[in-house]
Structure formats: structure tokens, C-alpha cells
Amino acid sequence: MEVKFNQLDRGFKKYQNDYEKIVMSVLESGWYILGEQVRLFENNFKNYIGSKYCVGLNSGLDALILALRILNIGEGDEVIVPANTYIATVLAITENKATPVFVEPDEYYNINADEITKSITNKTKAILVVHLYGQAANMDKICKIANDNKLFIVEDCAQSHGATYNNRKTGTFGEIGCFSFYPTKNIGAFGDAGAIVTNDFNLYNKMKMIRNYGSLTKYYNEIQGVNSRLDEIQAAILNFKLSHYKEYLCERKEIVDYYSKNIKNNYINLPLVRRNATSVFHLFVVQTEYRNELQNYLKARDIETQIHYPIPPHLSKAYENLNYSINSFPITEKLSNTILSLPLYEGMVLDEAKYVVDCLNMFKKDE
Ligand SMILES: *Cc1c(COP(=O)(O)O)cnc(C)c1O
């Protein structure tokens, strides 16, 4: 048997007829940018998340960049961010010429709330929280810290569509929640797409302007904007995906539960789920001291795995200028050497998960 890490065509084929109809109807409508489908999706998505407003955008990275921008975060400002995250989170800060201040993760892989306060200076403007791998960060503590220190919270929900903390969905705790609908995300378009949610009408209005050259009325440009629009085809597809998301999450949970109950190997640690939180398991990440051996062992058995992420942002070449070195963030760095993401995707079948588990349970480190 061969088990891929992802197989996007499985999800497509399952509803091929629907997708063909959806795309054709947009093509036939003669309206391709910022129309009925985008309005519908924004409305459906804000209702799903439980916020007042949603603005569809071009990508998750744009959502993060523009979120910081409309909060007026820029040169000279510091933004607190988890050291253990995808580089896009950090790029959103540096793209606005602000400075990232990294904080180590807790045992749930998310920012360690107890380590945030000591990183706050008089330049700190915001905490950019990431709900990594599909699980909410420690929002009680983070909201309290933000409140006590008058900091904005921006949430990177690119991996956490629908994940909750105290029964509230991620994206609703801060000023702005940022989502990606990149094809492999829990809700994925067939191309690039993103969105923000907010409860603040002014931020909503600003985001609507900034995504479309700074104008709400054509050719009346009130601010300096960009082109970061969600297109009608992707919006129509996302509307369909959102309406089937509950069923998809159940399928995903079946695989996750199977992994959680049946992986039994002393060398392999399973992910923990925080009390008061639910995970949408964007990724199923295990940990082992013998990560490279395990990855090669699985590869030899035709099982594809990935590492999220092999090089933490502070050590990536792109951020040489920040002058961090090995051991700057030892917990994050250790994770990057011990974590491994198992196959988990739309259309994956239980037999495939069983094969993965059987192989994992037989893994022994080389003597
Ligand atoms: C995918 C992702 C992004 C970026 O989203 P894009 O739509 O690819 O721009 C940002 N942050 C995290 C944590 C992500 O996983």
C-alpha cells in the first residue's frame, strides 16, 4: 500500500459534479471579481465563525499583512509572535517593517502564554497569536495579557477553521482573525484565497477598501490600497466547501481518533489537546527523538510524511538580518528536529490509517 501525505484530487473527485456546476455557473454569470459569490461567502463564513464581519482576500498571508497594516502597525513597532510557526506569520510583521519578538511554545505547540509578559516593551503593539496545527492557543491568558497591556490581538487562524476555546471559535478573540484557504488547509480553495473576520465596523470598512486599491466607490480612492481580492470562482467553491465542512471534520476526526487510540510505540509521542479547547487537527503531529529515522522508515514503506516546520523562522536564511543563532529558542529548535506530521487529508480512508499505524507500531530505533 502507498499512503501519500495529501491527495487533493480525492476531495475534488468526491464532489466533481458539484464543482463542475459551481464553476460553470460563475463562468456563465459574466461577473468574476467581487460579486454575489464573494458576498455570500463572507456572510456564510462570518456566521460560521461567529463574528460580525468578514472580508474575502487573496491569501492568508495578505490577510495577516493587511490586518497589521489597518491597525497602523509599522516601523518601530514590536509584535509578539510564536517562534514555532510557519514563516508567513513572521513575514506579515516584517512586510509592515515592524519587528517580530519571538516567544517559545508550550506543550501544545502554541505560544507559551506564561512567557509573553517578559517580552513586552514600550514598543509592543500587538500579539500575533497562531492556533497551530488546528488547536487554539491559551486564549484566556493571552486576552488578559493583551488587555492589561493595551495590546491588539491578531489571530493567525490559517490552520484552525472552526477550532474552539471555551466554546468560542478562533478568530473571535482578537481585533482581527486571519484565515487562509490555501488548497491544503482545512477549508481549501482550488487556488489561493484568504479572509479576515472582525467585530469592528471601522476595521471591516478599512479592510474592504484596502483590498481593492483603497476604494469602496470605483475611482474614489480614500487610502493607499492593494489588490487582494477573493475571486468569484474561489468564493463559490468555498461556499460549497463550508457547507460540507461539518461532514469533512467528522471524516477527519475518524482518522485522528484512529491514530490517537492505536499508535502505541514508546518512541513516539502523540499530540495533546488542551482542556477547554477543541482541535480541528489541521495536522496530526507526533514527536520522536528518532525523527529522521522514523521518516525514512515510513518512506521505505511508501508512507509520505512532512515536517511542519524543519527550520524555525528565526533560523531561516530569510531572517539572517535578525541575527539569531542556534539556541536562541531551544524549545522551538528541538521541536523542529523531533516533530513529524502523519498523512491526514480529505478522502483518506481508514485502511490507509491502519497501514500507517501498523508500520508506526513496528518501528524500532536502529541499534
Ligand atoms: C498557510 C499559512 C499561512 C499563509 O496562508 P497563505 O494562504 O498560504 O498565504 C499563514 N500562517 C499559517 C500558520 C499558515 O499555515
Radius of gyration: 21 Å
Report the sheet with the most strands, covering strand number, pairing sense and barrel closure: 7 strands, mixed
Please give the oligomerization state of what you see: single chain
Low-confidence stretches: none
Order of helices and strands: HHHEHEHEEHEEEEEHEEHHEHHEH
Kindly, what is the distance between the CA atoms of the first and last residues, rounded to a whole number of angstroms? 27 Å
Shape from CA axes? globular
* Percent in strands: 5-15%
Q: State the helical fraction.
A: 25-40%
Helix-strand makeup class: alpha/beta
Strand order of the largest sheet: 1-9-8-5-4-2-3
* Overall pLDDT level: 97
- The total count of strands amounts to 13
Q: Count of helices? A: 12
Bound molecules: pyridoxal-5'-phosphate
In short:
Helix content is 38%, strand content 15%.
Overview of the molecule:
With 367 residues, the protein is α/β, with parallel strands linked by helices. It is built from 12 helices and 13 strands. The protein has helices at residues 8-14, 16-29, 36-49, 60-70, 87-95, 139-149, 201-210, 232-243, 245-262, 291-300, 330-338, 350-362; strands at residues 53-57, 78-82, 99-103, 124-130, 152-156, 164-165, 168-169, 176-180, 194-198, 215-217, 220-221, 284-287, 339-342. The strands form 4 sheets. The chain has a 7-stranded mixed beta sheet, sandwiched between helices. A two-stranded antiparallel sheet has the order 6-7. Helix 6 (139-149) links the parallel strand 4 (124-130) and strand 5. The two termini are 27 Å apart. 45% of the residues are buried. Bound molecules: pyridoxal-5'-phosphate. Pyridoxal-5'-phosphate binds next to helix 4 and helix 5. Pyridoxal-5'-phosphate (PLP) binds at residues 59-61, 85-86, 88-89, 130, 156, 158-159, 180, 182, 192, 194.
